[in-house]
Design a protein that fits this description.
GO cellular component, one term: membrane
Oligomer: single chain
Protein name: NnrU
Distance between the termini: 32 Å
Shape: globular
Membrane topology: Multi-pass membrane protein
Helix content: over 70%
Pfam families: NnrU
Keywords: Membrane, Transmembrane, Transmembrane helix
Order of helices and strands: HHHHHHHHH
Number of strands: 0
């Protein structure tokens, strides 16, 4: 089956990234015994293997794509707009003291939701449904769990919020204009 590699990659990658949902106590025990940096290093290995399998499986599945629907032309434009939102949300995770992080608490997870949903709007193959649908479902489940965990207290600053929006917009522009084509062989514009 042409989706098998993609499915293995998704199970491995999303499984490792779901440890907090199903094994928070085990995770904390491992961090305490190994140390945070060692835990992250070990955690990274299956994550990278899963990511590589996802990429290889997605490419393999698209050699003979199975079309489920033909998205209307306007969906590409909506996807590009939603990707701006997604990129800003992803950047909000890393810039301290911004209002977006204060409001959402876990902007990366929301950014993954927006990314996956946006790509489902403009892509109609079985591989797209499996890939982006899996990430959408995962981000919905992980966000529910993440909202229940304590979050760092931040004192938002409008300068950091503006920096978040500007940096996110700049990265989105570069990605839309050049990187998406370079990395995935498809130009969104």
């Amino acid at each position: 089956m042409q989706l098998l590699t993609l499915l293995y990659g998704l199970v491995l990658f999303l499984g490792v990234h779901s440890i907090r949902i199903f094994g928070e106590e085990t995770r904390n025990m491992l961090i305490d015994s190994w140390g945070k940096n060692s835990y992250r290093a070990i955690y990274s290995v299956p994550s990278l293997v899963g990511l590589l399998l996802i990429i290889m499986g997605y490419i393999e599945a698209n050699l003979e794509p199975v079309y489920l629907w033909n998205p209307p032309m306007g969906m590409r434009h909506l996807t590009i707009l939603l990707m701006l939102v997604s990129t800003i949300l992803l950047i909000a995770t890393y810039i301290p003291n911004n209002h977006i992080k204060l409001k959402l608490r876990h902007p990366m997870t929301v950014g993954v939701k927006v990314w996956a949903f946006a790509h489902l709007l403009s892509n109609g193959t079985l591989a797209d449904l499996v890939l982006f649908g899996s990430f959408l479902l995962w981000s919905i489940l992980i966000y529910r769990n993440a909202r229940s965990r304590p979050v760092e207290i931040i004192h938002p600053n409008w300068r950091f919020t503006a920096l978040t929006i500007l940096a996110g917009t700049a990265i989105w522009f570069v990605f839309i204009k050049w990187l998406h084509l370079m990395l995935f062989g498809v130009s969104p514009v």
